[in-house]
Amino acid sequence: MNTHKSAGENITVVDATLRDGGIVNNFYFPQGFARALYEADKAAGVDVMEFGYKVSKKLFNVSEFGEWKFCEEGSLRAVVGDKPEKSPKIAVMSDVGRVDLHTEVLPKEQSVIDMYRIATYVRQTEEAAEMINFCHDMGYATSCNIMAISRESEGDLKRCVETICKTPVDVLYIVDSFGSLYEDDIKHVCELYGEAAYKYGKQLGIHAHNNQQLALANTIAAMNAGATWLDATVSGMGRGAGNAFLEGLLGYLRSPRYNINPVLVFIREHINPLKASGVEWGYDVPYLLTGLNGIHPYAAIDFEHDRRTDYENFLAEITAEGYVAPSHR
For position 324, what pLDDT does the model report? Predict the structure, then answer.
């Protein structure tokens, strides 16, 4: 018997399909995909749609990526118009050091973007704080997504969180980059983050990866531990094993604010053809093995790309002393 009750009204659902999903296909989505997703999110009641990355064209070969790697203003307005409706809010992600703040981040009054999500590693804490302050001063809401936390000491993580929470950041994100965390880990991190976040009036968010098929379960665990910003992607589309399933999250929340049907239609009309065209993501054994061992999933992505099936050899490789996982991000 399922006795689960609907979630409270303080939840913010974030659709990260174009951004995390874009890593799968270098952001080359079919014509009309982004517009259809925006309309589906709007009809479904999704609160925030993350369109992609905001990174500098000075750092990447533009010919190798689709438009949502860069999220230029013209691309965004072609989807949402010049005066988009209040919901869903429009977000982009910027990695520390990968966007020219002074030339590529417009003042809010000149942009349809509502929120900058700042992605950082603990070692970049000070630079992340500077980016948050800059984007806040330009008029944007901000989040800070601290990556690869399973590799950090608790002391370093606490110091990072304290520094970030002293900025004007709105949301502090728990990011399970390697899909290696379990429910108890999620609860512990929520407590650790919460000590500073609640002291400074910040909200908590969760961005989970599905290496061990725990992304949705960990998202729910984080919500039960106080996280109110919940990331998900349609059909779990995302790097490697993917993310929490948006349709599963909306179904779990059982809130009259959300309607799962527009997402189901989008899956039939846009996600299924995308998969049929050869775009791949989702759980597989190599992702389990990287998740179990706290290894960057790009090792598993390379394994899959090479069409290998010698899982036992792969496990020996990634657990060998001195092994360094590849990073293509």
Answer: 83
